[in-house]
Every structure is written in structure tokens, then in C-alpha cells.
TrEMBL record:
Entry's family note: Belongs to the adenosylhomocysteinase family.
Protein name, entry field: Adenosylhomocysteinase
Compartments, record wording: Cytoplasm
Residues noted as binding substrate in the record, renumbered to the chain: 57, 129, 154, 184, 188
PROSITE patterns per the UniProt record, alphabetical: ADOHCYASE_1, ADOHCYASE_2
Enzyme Commission designation: 3.13.2.1
């Protein structure tokens, strides 16, 4: 482990490999590259002290390089104990000069020590993925709150927590819900989570999905992605939902929908993507068949009642990297992937760079927008303006070599009038 004022990371010798992988991701992030070129020229973030609690991956590294190019004084820590790519953390520090506090597999004590280390930077702006940074600010580091202009939040779970803080009247500065931008949740959550979750499950287990029954808990954008990718690989998909509209949508998309307790006895593979607590609970675990596999693609491992699983088991052993086998008293064996943490970043590399290109373009432009507009904003959760969303989508299309039509003046007039009819 390498520790210094520059950060806390595993091994400096990993730097060259991290640099190569960061550059590999960069080639699929053309929108962020265009933003970085403008940032380097205009310096919109000059003088801003920024603390980021994000997944330390090759894609995040390209965001960090962009923010630094824009003038930000940036420090980073991990937003999940298992999501860090150690070579990337080393390269961020040694190649790009961005202090990074992140070690794959760090325990809870080190995890929060790292969060406090980036808060010691006395930030003016936060960038969070899951709201652990902001919640720490509001609980144990309140002396720093007067310095904060505003923040950005990357993921669904974090937005849920922030809206709870807003509703309770405890949120002390404005936060942009980057996750709620169309060019984030419709692509990152659906295509990114869908592909990367299935990728991670296959890497960890080497199972064949064709012919198996896959149970997806939650049919939001992430759940849609996981279900469609599993179905595309030949799995029989069951969806569990509490929202009647989403449940109906899943039925119309061709999936079986039923209560979780019924699906528990049928499933070969279970994937949670809800952002809620104990969606796989003891009564589900008790009914699972021998050989069942459980994975979580939500931000926190709270989605699976792991203490209940521990109580049901008479033996636990690690059978493969990221696969723990729990043996019940009757001999049944149930397998938990990545300790119940978000499987796509724990057992694989997270989302492909091409989809994170849009998500992190939202983060970069969100930081710029926050700096300009924070004084007009209340301590609430906001979404980015539609115009920025459409700008990112247009840049992505252009990078893909795709052009689209535009409305004629006559068509615009027609759409903005009420006089014309049959």
C-alpha cells in the first residue's frame, strides 16, 4: 500500500498499466474529449476545490482529467469498497497528479477514512456516487458546509437519499441529480448496467445463461437493461415489481411477473436493481433451490439480507473469486456474488466507456453549470436543463457519424400554434 499526501492507493508499480487502460477508455469517450478541449481553453472551473467520491475506474479517470483540465483542484476517493481499479488509482496519482484515496477491498474503517481525507481538502463543490460524501458532510463534517457552493450526484440510490434529505429539510446546499438526465439514466442505467452486470456475473461464475431462469428484482431503467440482456442470451426472465405500471410494462415486454416469494423457488440466478432494503429477504432465501446464485447491481449491498443468509447457513466458503458459497442445514447451497456489493464494478470493470461518455459529460457540464448558477439555487435537488441534455446527445450522435433532421420554420410554427386543425 502506498500512502502519502497525494493519496492512499495500493501499488505505484501499477501506474503504467493504469495509464494504458485509461487511454484505451478515452478512445470511446469523444464527447468528454470535446468538453475537455474547451475546458482546457476556457478554464471554467479555475480555483474550485472539488472533492469526488466516485467509482475509481478508467472512465472516472477520464472525467477527473477533464475536470482538472478545466482548472478544478480535485481530490478523489472510492464510492464503494470493491469498485476501485488499483492500477487506475495509481495512475491518477503518479501520471495525472490527481490525489486519490482508494484501494480495492478496503474495509469500512478505511473507506470512511478516505472520505474524510477528501473532505480535508475543504471543497467548494462535491461530486458523489451514492451520497456517502454528502451524508458525511451533513453528519460529522458540518463545519465544512459553509464552504460548499453545490454538488452533483451520479446514481439513483444517491438521488433517493438526497431527496429524502431535501424533504426532511436537512440538505444545506443545491445538488444536481445527474442521474435524472435522459442522456444518463436512459443509456448508462439501461445499456451500461444491463451489459456490465451480465458481464460480471459470467466472469465470476462462467455459467451459461441460455435456458436458465433469471429473476430481476426491479424494472426501472437498470432492471430493464438486465432483463433485456439476460433474455438476449437465452434466459427465461421473471420480473419482480411493486409499481403496477412498471409491472405492466414488464408483462408487455414479454416477461413473467409474479411476487418474489413465488419466483424464489423457480430462479437459478437472482439480480437486484432496486435501491431499496432487503428486497431479497429471509423468506426468499429459505425457498431458493440448490445452486441458486444471487447478485446485486444496486449501489449498496443492503438489497440482499446478508445477515439472514448468514443465519441460514451452517457453512460458508469462497469457491471462486467473488463467489461465496453458503451451505444450508439441509445441504442446499446458495451462492452470493461479490459479497452482495454492486457486481458489475466488483467482479468486472463497470460500464463500457462509450456509455459513460454521456454520463460523465453530464457531470462535467453539471459542475460548470453549478458554478454559474449556484447563487440562484436553493438547497434542493435539481436536474440539468434539457438544453444540456440535448447538447450531449447531439455531440454523441456527431461522434458516431450520425446526422438527424431539423424542423422547418413552417413545422415549428405549426407545432407552436393552435389554430390549425381538421
Amino acid at each position: 500500500m502506498t500512502t502519502s499526501i497525494r493519496g492512499d492507493f495500493k501499488d505505484a508499480s501499477l501506474t503504467p498499466r493504469g495509464k494504458d487502460r485509461i487511454e484505451w477508455a478515452a478512445k470511446d469517450m469523444p464527447v468528454l474529449r470535446l468538453i475537455r478541449e474547451r475546458f482546457a481553453k476556457d478554464q471554467p472551473l479555475k480555483g474550485v476545490r472539488m472533492s469526488g467520491c466516485l467509482h475509481i475506474t478508467t472512465e472516472t479517470a477520464n472525467l477527473a482529467i477533464t475536470l482538472k483540465a478545466g482548472g478544478a483542484d480535485l481530490v478523489l476517493c472510492a464510492s464503494n469498497p470493491l469498485s476501485t481499479q488499483d492500477d487506475v488509482a495509481a495512475a491518477l496519482v503518479n501520471e495525472y497528479g490527481i490525489p486519490t484515496f482508494a484501494i480495492k477491498g478496503e474495509d469500512e474503517e478505511i473507506y470512511y477514512r478516505h472520505i474524510n481525507a477528501v473532505l480535508d481538502h475543504k471543497p467548494n463543490m462535491t461530486m458523489d456516487d451514492g451520497c456517502d460524501l454528502v451524508s458525511t458532510l451533513h453528519s460529522t463534517r458540518t463545519e465544512l458546509l459553509p464552504n460548499i457552493i453545490g454538488g452533483m450526484e451520479e446514481t439513483t440510490t444517491g438521488v433517493i437519499r438526497l431527496k429524502s434529505m431535501e424533504k426532511g429539510g436537512v440538505l444545506k446546499f443545491p445538488v444536481l441529480a445527474v442521474n435524472d438526465s435522459d442522456t444518463k439514466h436512459m443509456f448508462d442505467n439501461r445499456y451500461g448496467t444491463g451489459q456490465s452486470s451480465i458481464d460480471a456475473i459470467i466472469r465470476a461464475t462462467n455459467i451459461l445463461l441460455a435456458g436458465r431462469t433469471v429473476v430481476v428484482f426491479g424494472y426501472g431503467w437498470c432492471g430493464r437493461g438486465v432483463a433485456s440482456r439476460a433474455h438476449g442470451m437465452g434466459a427465461n426472465v421473471i420480473v419482480i415489481e411493486v409499481d403496477p405500471v412498471r409491472a405492466l410494462e414488464a408483462v408487455m415486454d414479454g416477461y413473467r411477473v409474479m411476487p418474489g416469494v413465488e419466483a424464489a423457488a423457480l430462479g437459478d440466478l437472482f439480480v437486484t436493481v432496486t435501491g431499496d432494503l432487503n428486497v431479497i429477504d429471509k423468506h426468499h432465501l429459505e425457498r431458493m433451490k440448490n445452486g441458486a446464485i444471487i447478485a446485486n447491481s444496486g449501489h449498496f449491498n443492503d438489497e440482499i439480507n446478508i445477515p439472514a443468509l448468514e443465519q441460514l447457513a451452517v457453512n460458508k466458503r469462497r469457491v471462486r473469486d467473488f463467489v461465496d458459497e453458503y451451505t444450508y442445514g439441509d445441504g442446499r447451497r446458495v451462492h452470493l456474488l461479490a459479497e452482495g456489493r454492486l457486481v458489475n464494478l466488483s467482479a468486472a470493470e463497470g460500464h463500457p466507456a462509450s456509455v459513460m461518455d454521456m454520463s460523465f459529460a453530464n457531470q462535467a457540464l453539471g459542475a460548470e453549470y453549478m458554478l454559474v448558477h449556484a447563487k440562484e439555487m436553493q438547497p434542493r435537488v435539481y436536474t440539468l436543463p434539457k438544453e444540456l441534455d440535448q447538447e450531449i446527445a447531439l455531440l454523441k450522435l456527431q461522434a458516431m457519424g450520425i446526422t438527424i433532421d431539423t424542423l422547418t420554420p413552417e413545422q415549428e410554427k405549426y407545432l407552436n400554434s393552435w389554430e390549425s386543425g381538421t
